[in-house]
Design goal:
Belongs to the glycosyltransferase 8 family. Its EC number is 2.4.1.-. This is Hexosyltransferase. By secondary structure, the chain is mainly α. It has three domains: 12-59, no CATH class; 63-98, no CATH class; 100-157, no CATH class. 16% of the residues lie in helices and 6% in strands. The protein has a two-stranded antiparallel sheet with strand order 1-2.
Length: 167
């Protein structure tokens, strides 16, 4: 289980993606997540389903807001040139722990501008993460899908296989 993964070295926080029930209220540690004291030894439910949400596994002792705002004021969009991760790296001062690829098959978005596609990392897959600018729904809708976008196609609400909602 992901929450039992051993993390070594010094880190301020580990960000993990878990699949929760649609209502965060029904997830047992929801109150702990919203509170200032998060118990990292909370028992997670045996069955978790629904939409994906990123949760802080351990809160950082302090947030470097001033530095983050300073960088945000630099040339427009500069902080996001490498995607959405740089703000987290700034906040946690780079003290983050990597997790095995089987928990988060990230980077599947490739690059929409260059038209590049990526393959899965070798091994088992738990979560497919189309990070980056290339989203499967945009590529499917634009008629230029990557091979892995076929995994998303059955869930594309506007695609040819989409079910017409009841009126």
């Amino acid at each position: 289980m992901l929450w039992a993964a051993r993390l070594s070295g010094f880190f301020s926080a580990a960000m993990l993606m878990v699949v929760l029930s649609p209502s965060l209220q029904s997830f047992p540690p929801a109150e702990a997540i919203r509170s200032s004291q998060f118990d990292s030894h909370v028992r997670f439910p045996g069955q978790i389903a629904g939409g994906a949400r990123g949760l802080p596994f351990r809160r950082a002792p302090s947030f470097r807001i001033e530095r983050w705002m300073e960088i945000q004021k630099s040339p427009p969009g500069r902080i996001y040139e490498l995607g959405s991760l740089p703000p987290f790296l700034l906040v946690f001062a780079g003290h983050v722990a990597a997790i095995e690829h089987r928990w988060n098959q990230h980077g599947l978005g490739g690059d929409n501008i260059l038209g590049s596609c990526r393959d899965l990392h070798p091994g088992p897959v738990s979560l497919l993460h189309w990070s980056g600018s290339g989203k499967p729904w945009a590529r499917l809708g634009g008629g230029r899908p990557c091979p892995l976008d076929a995994l998303w196609a059955p869930f594309d609400l506007y695609g040819p296989a989409a079910v017409e909602p009841a009126r």
